[in-house]
Automatic annotation (TrEMBL):
UniProt keyword annotations, A-Z: Membrane, Transmembrane, Transmembrane helix, Transport
Full protein name: Na+-driven multidrug efflux pump
Domain of life (superkingdom): Bacteria
GO molecular-function term, one example from the UniProt record: antiporter activity
Residue ranges crossing the lipid bilayer per the database entry: 33-59, 79-101, 113-132, 152-169, 181-200, 212-235, 264-290, 302-322, 342-367, 387-405, 412-436, 442-460
GO CC, alphabetical: plasma membrane
Organism of this sequence: Silicimonas algicola
Length: 475
């Protein structure tokens, strides 16, 4: 205490060492940049979830039997869309790196060439979703209303194509720092989607409507407006135009497009490998513990909301690291990585506090989101949430580690981490625990083991790269 006392001044706090002050300032700057990049991504994900929830609620009230068919088609479509969204996500790190390197023509060229790849992929996958009802029937899934299911699948094929274009435009605008337009578009789409569902399902002005299949037509109309408007804004906006140069290289150069195709496919497969086990968990619980399916659905919904924060942070890390690598500033990249670790640790702590220490509050909020106050449902969900929290906490290192790998152009390493951990270990463990009769608890425990294994693989890969870099620096 005596060393903090100054005659005539009194007690004064100790001075912060200059080196520590500089580190705090750097972390503050990097933290603000990460928050600014992550917030729009999380908001867009939440609004996308609201769109899907609107469809389910309105179809469930109008035709509960049709809802089961729509959910079955939606599960298949979600796998295809996750692959396509990961595929389209290639544009973000490449654009960020080109902006960091200050190569204006490369920004435009990358966006245009990836747009060609995304449009081609959308056309190919439209045929798959168009015939998704027939594919599910061939796989043994039977529908009470087969014609309604087929009509819904065909409408959703068109909606899928435009939603992929919207995902591509969102990624590109986020990399350009202009994601506000995408947020405004989806905010306008929410009331339009509810109105279109009402009209196309129940009819209007003497028209009888299409029933549950009308939800697919409503999604197609809304998706066309969303995807079309974002693509027009992307290519017509001054934010994109300022990267155009008087002399631009041609777009359709096959070797250059094929060079982009490989990492795009790897990123799409990595997205499926990451999210696939979470989707399979629902199918496994429905098969081995159907009585726990409702509680699992609520726990899964709570986890999905928190996962949006992780997805936003992951994309922010990818953009920041790619930008700094384009600038060739390894020291600032190290500062950004340190800040990302701090944010990841804070997110993990928040998840544990929320899901493990306050599961009753989360379970009550999840039940209220579907209009239920059933005490047994809330209690069952509350008992499942700690395992959900552990699984989500284990996913943080894997997601952020693979975000860094994607920024460094190592999409194959990210795919290996997700495929080995999430898909291989996770699916095997979930199936084993489910077959052993552990129910939903066992399946979530298996998911925790798989996600933890993926995190371990990602961390080991980053540590190996770091040790190699240190070894080269000392030579």
């Amino acid at each position: 205490m005596a060393r903090f006392y100054r005659p005539g001044v009194g007690f004064s706090p100790p001075e912060i060492p200059p080196a520590l002050r500089v580190q705090v300032l750097r972390a503050t700057v990097e933290g603000r940049l990460l928050i600014a990049a992550a917030s729009p991504v999380a908001v867009l994900g939440l609004l996308n979830m609201a769109l899907g929830l609107t469809d389910m609620v309105m179809v469930g009230r109008f035709d509960p039997q049709g809802l089961a068919a729509i959910l079955a088609v939606g599960d298949l479509q979600s796998i295809v869309f996750n692959f396509s969204a990961g595929f389209a996500g290639l544009v973000a790190p490449h654009v960020a790196a080109a902006i960091g390197a200050r190569v204006a023509w490369q920004v435009c060229t990358i966006v245009q060439r990836v747009a060609v790849l995304v449009a081609t992929l959308a056309l190919l996958c439209v045929a798959l979703i168009w015939n998704s009802a027939a594919i599910l029937e061939a796989a043994g899934v039977h529908f009470d209303q087969p014609q309604v299911t087929r009509d819904y699948a065909r409408y959703m094929a068109g909606a899928y194509a435009f939603m992929v274009l919207f995902a591509f435009g969102r990624h590109a605008l986020t990399a350009l720092g202009r994601s506000r337009f995408a947020i405004c578009v989806i905010l306008l789409a929410l009331p339009l989607n509810a109105t279109a569902n009402q009209v196309f399902m129940e009819g209007a002005f003497g028209w009888p409507g299409l029933g549950a299949a009308g939800a697919g037509l409503a999604s197609f109309v809304v998706a066309a407006g969303m995807g079309g408007s974002v693509m027009v804004y992307l290519f017509m906006s001054p934010s994109f135009g300022r990267y155009r140069t008087p002399v631009m290289p041609p777009i359709f150069v096959l070797p250059e497009i094929l060079t982009l195709l490989r990492p795009a496919l790897l990123m799409g497969l990595a997205a499926v490998a990451e999210t696939g086990p979470f989707l399979c968990a629902t199918l496994l619980i429905g098969a081995v513990a159907a009585e726990d399916l409702m509680a699992h659905g609520l726990a899964f919904r709570a986890m999905a909301v928190c996962y949006l924060l992780l997805a936003g942070l992951g994309q922010a890390v990818t953009l920041r690291i790619a930008y700094l690598r384009g600038r060739s500033t390894s020291r600032r990249e190290a500062h950004a990585l340190s800040t990302a670790r701090l944010f990841g640790a804070a997110l993990m702590a928040g998840i544990l506090v929320l899901f493990c220490l306050n599961p009753e509050i989360v379970a009550w909020a999840a039940a209220r989101s579907i209009g239920s106050t059933d005490p047994k449902l809330i209690a069952d969900t509350s008992a499942l949430l700690p395992l959900t929290g552990f699984a989500l906490t284990a996913a943080v290192p894997a997601h952020l580690g693979c975000a860094v790998l994607r920024a460094r152009g190592e999409a194959l390493s990210a795919l290996v981490a997700f495929a080995v951990g999430h898909s291989c270990v996770g699916l095997v463990a979930m199936a084993a625990f489910g077959a052993a009769g552990f129910g939903a608890d066992g399946i979530w425990s298996g998911l925790f083991l798989g996600v933890g294994s993926g995190s371990a693989v990602a961390i080991l890969r980053l540590q190996y790269e770091r040790s190699v870099s240190i070894g080269l620096a000392t030579v």
